[in-house]
Specification:
Layout: H1 15-21, H2 27-40, E1 44-47, H3 54-59, E2 63-66, H4 69-75, H5 87-104, E3 108-114, E4 117-125, E5 128-134, H6 145-153, E6 158-163, H7 167-173, E7 177-180, H8 181-185
Parallel strand pairs: 5-6, 6-7
Antiparallel strand pairs: 1-2, 3-4, 4-5
């Protein structure tokens, strides 16, 4: 994987902002070309921002998702992540794995960000329409405010929290469906969706 994509795992990357850091003429076009090649090889997905307008969606920078976490492990000089000693990196890896799983299962995957609100994943397809927040550590009901705001603005989507076993109680207190990330990655059906 090219060096420019490594630090961007699961992050929104703006080619326009990269352009300010690039010295060579044509470098931006080269990076955009490399991203298309990585997508064509099913290694990386440039997940678009969710927007009702196609023009607005195209003008927003994508979130890069590596479509196989084995590539993430191989390319990370720190090695395989330990969830106890490095919970932040574990969260990034888990979010990447969940988004990649949905993408690889043929769902349309996007992310949503408006002002202070951000939703990790917006899934549309055979699983239905879901707004998804992925949590790997402890969290509070107020940490789900972006998810609640998204489904308020877009009522055809159902909210879902993908978390660890302990987080399911918090999601339940918020009145939001949940499943563990282990269940999700094992291919278990989403709540209310028949297999």
């Amino acid at each position: 994987m090219p060096r420019f994509a490594r630090p961007a795992l699961g992050r929104v990357i703006s080619l326009q902002k990269l352009q300010a850091q690039l010295q060579d003429p044509g470098a931006l076009e080269t990076i955009a070309h490399y991203l298309r090649l990585l997508e064509d090889a099913y290694l990386v997905a440039a997940v678009p921002k969710y927007a009702k307008s196609a023009l607005r969606q195209r003008s927003s920078p994508p979130k890069l998702v590596t479509l196989n976490n084995a590539l993430v492990a191989v390319m990370d000089p720190r090695g395989v992540v330990d969830p106890v000693s490095d919970p932040v990196r574990f969260g990034v890896w888990t979010e990447n794995a969940c988004l990649a799983h949905a993408w690889n299962a043929g769902q349309r995957v996007s992310y949503w960000r408006e002002g202070p609100y951000e939703v990790d994943g917006v899934f549309e397809g055979s699983w239905g329409s879901w707004a998804v927040e992925i949590k790997t550590g402890g969290f509070h009901v107020h940490d789900l405010s972006a998810l609640a705001e998204f489904v308020r603005r877009h009522p055809r989507f159902l909210p879902l929290v993908i978390c660890d076993r302990q987080g399911r109680a918090t999601a339940s207190r918020a009145g939001i469906a949940s499943m563990t990330w282990q269940e999700f990655l094992a291919g278990e059906p989403l709540p209310g969706v028949e297999a």
